[in-house]
What does this fold into?
Amino acid sequence: MNKVQSAECKWSPEGLKLKLGLETAGVDCDLHEALLMSNLRDGDRLVLYPRWTVDERLPAAERKEFTPTPKQMLYGQRAELIGRVATEKDASGRVTAAYAVVELQESRGGDWSKPHVFPAIGRPLEEGKLYTLDPCPNDWYGYWLGQVVNGLCDGQPSVLYDRLVKPPSPGDGAGLPGQKAFLAGLDAFLQAGLLHEFEIGKREFIGGHGRTPVLLVQGPPGTGKSMSSAFAVFARLQAAMKEDRPYRVFLSCKTHAATDILLKNVLEVQEKLRQLRDAKPKLFAKHFDARILDVPLYRVAPNDPPPAGVIHLQKDAEKESGEGKNADIIQEEQWAVVAITPGGTYGMLKQKWSKCVFGHELCDLLVLDEASQMNLPEAVMAALPMKADAPLIVVGDHRQMPPIVKHDWDRETRRTFRQYQV
It folds into this structure.
């Protein structure tokens, strides 16, 4: 069979949608109880695998059914749950029937991606056969982190790693001329009764440390770290404008939610500066560069659409052919603020420079917020596009919890006390 014939005969499950009836035959609970204990959610990546399997290496007469091994299921058919599990209930409210709609998917991977990602072996489903739905074991994020660590071990350049291995001189902590003017403007509007006061530490953060290589900003929850970071970003942008040099600020947190909150603060500060300009134009012009009001704010590959005033850059992999790469769009701007998760940074660089994600200088200032949630490989991944002289601002509280993922308690399916009773 030649390549053309082989391609014509190739079967792919990609995009096939199936409606699966759920049942609990042979299980020590009914369907109602099983669903109460299930944590399946819309969009979950799953493995669809036969409930029973056989050793196909044996003659047909010697084959006996057994529960699939974990190793077998690593290579099972991949699927995505579409919507919520649909149910039918009796008069008392107990579930009597349930259905799940899944969309079959191809799964990339091979020896190069193990032990983080495993390729699926797709097979047509058989009518009337029992299958199980289990969480997909693939961990692309872990694979990307592994690639970053391997790159460091191979000697690839990393500005952040170099600063951790050989800490540079912290400098005198002085602010740049544009920063000082920005802080003086905040003071002027404070005196005019149009702005709140900034504590000593926040004033130093906003108006100082213009070229400090690594600046640590620490404080308990609710002390205004993220909002102060937003003011500090615009102070540094104004300093770059005064020196007529490009300045692209990257904001990065472990989670999409935290990244969105930091960008929202930046958006609110930019809007506040517009309000101050409208209230007292002459006072504003005396201290501020009006161009900071027009600095574009980008959100790369968000989970949810960003608010008005923020430019949405969807994943490069999801764009139509011929559309500009996100890295190119960012480089076209002389001044910009870019909110992106560490994984989003890796994906953006990989789409633009597929052979190597190291050594591409896009970022003039990196702000890592909620840093207590971020491990070291994630921080290095977020710092991949840093320029050699780009300052790093690390914001967080080392006394808070280590890396965590917030659980969706509001949507958690929980049994009531009455259902738990003996």
Notes: Residues 75 and 121 are 6 Å apart (CA to CA).
